């Protein structure tokens, strides 16, 4: 297998043939699609955010009050751009310029739906889609269909009660409403990211989906219906992307039969056609040195390659430290821009070794400040992480 891949890469290099499998790049000169997850909680125009962050500027409240809540705590990050309103199209226009200038050409919006309606959607609708330069980037949705407990509310999360405020489960009727809405509102936009003409839609929490729809067989039928609706809208199919972590591939009660592996058969039965990760913390111990974590990442990528039949798009996390919300956390150590650059080169090498799939790489994240996994400039490394992306993918 290695010799075959190496031969293909050599041929591509000698002949100067560019990789083109129908993926729509936001910049014709950029060979790789570098996609950063965007957490849309840093907005001040969404009244549904007020119950969690009453000051009215979204989860910036958690970031800016850290030292007040935990005096003398080691976590004292400050955004170089200040606590910006990302639902402001002028602000988002600046972010799009900075992202594309440094090699980020796709945003993956965390997208939420609770209590029969969208949640945290204003950053996409009022910010990104109204930005004057939105055509410089692509975007797609990751349905963050997890439960909402007290984690976001710093006034309550210290009690560790984990009260379920909203469930991520939806019925078949509500699922159809969501899918039809996203096809019409987002998939048809020229800025929506597609692979071989297929809109990419990522699902975060498979157990929540299955429980809401009533079981595995019902979920298979619902997802097949979603694909057919996408085709009816004029697309060749739906690129249904799995968030790769153990809870999504090891569903109790599923019999893998005689397939390649039970987990491969499970996601294949559901109809997922590709996968990526959302965070390193989902599959490895992150309370260690970043370079040690990367060794586990390599092993995980090799395991996925050996286990699953669909394309895996390599994922790199900037870091992890959830203490702004809780005061304590596992902490990634030594995740400097220089080491982050090494991780990006590892992902680039993985893409180069898989020339038969789209050159997509995902990064956590553009702005996960309260999980300390962000590309945006700060008081510690400045533009260091963004410069690392630029060095690997543009220079």
UniProtKB/TrEMBL annotation:
Coiled coil: none annotated. It holds the Pfam family Glyco_tran_WbsX. This is Glycoside hydrolase family 99-like domain-containing protein. It comes from Olivibacter ginsenosidimutans.
